[in-house]
User: What shape does this take?
Amino acid sequence: MWRAKWTDIITLFDYPPAIRKAIYTTNAIESVNSVIRKFTRNRKIYPNEESALKLVYMAIHEASRKWTMPIHHWKQALNHFAIMFEERMPKLTD
Assistant: This one.
């Protein structure tokens, strides 16, 4: 069990410092999980999958209005992403 977590952590060190800093200083995943938990806490059973997905969508939509802080060191991280994942980045048109 512990080894599996270590392999997940060590993968982070494959990235340049700018990307690592953007990842571990944003807490974006924790924030999304917190918002979803807050909206779903009182209801444990949903009539169908679509109703559960709608609730998750609404939770994220409502919370996104409050997410105004820029990601620290994003410009440096984005430059590294553009180099490392060139095929995944959108093409800029002139």
